[in-house]
Amino acid sequence: MATERTLSIIKPDAVAKNAIGDIIARFEKAGLQVVAAKMTHLSEEKAGGFYAEHKERPFFKDLVGFMTSGPVVVQVLEGEGAIAKNRDLMGATNPKEAAPGTIRADFAETIDANAVHGSDSPESAEREISYFFGNDEICPR
Ligand code: GDP
Ligand code: MG
């Protein structure tokens, strides 16, 4: 499997729970490397643009409200099959349906505050990484 990069966001609920380190440890233990990271408090414009694909969904306003409710930690993860590996580590969107031992099962309670974001395809990974990071901010090892 090819080396890939994916965008991960530790969402405001998980940051508020002091779970940044626990979540990043799961990525590292699974063989993913953090090659870029920043903490930021998203504006409505930045969060809305990030989730533009969901603009027409009934939950869009709540989603943007939640994502701007506190700071987030945005990272680029690199590794073999990083996109699918990260999605496996995250678990299902609804934490009530997330497999035991996944990040969402362990750190999230509701579908709107579900601890983490991860890119879902190579195309979205490319768009999402460049939405947050310039090439000079990514540090492959
Ligand atoms: P993800 O890729 O697993 O994060 O899920 P989606 O791309 O489908 O949705 C993006 C985010 O929107 C999810 O992580 C949730 O935070 C939120 N979301 C998705 N579906 C719902 C829903 O039915 N209700 C609410 N309130 N939020 C939702
Ligand atoms: Mg998604």
From TrEMBL:
Active-site residues, record numbering mapped to chain: 117
Q: List the molecular function annotations (GO) for this entry.
A: nucleoside diphosphate kinase activity
Q: Outline the extent of the Nucleoside diphosphate kinase-like domain.
A: 3-140
Which Pfam families does its entry note? NDK
Binding positions (ATP) = 11, 59, 87, 93, 104, 114
Family of this protein: Belongs to the NDK family.
Q: What is this protein called?
A: Nucleoside diphosphate kinase
**From what organism does this protein derive?**
Halomonas colorata
Its gene? ndk
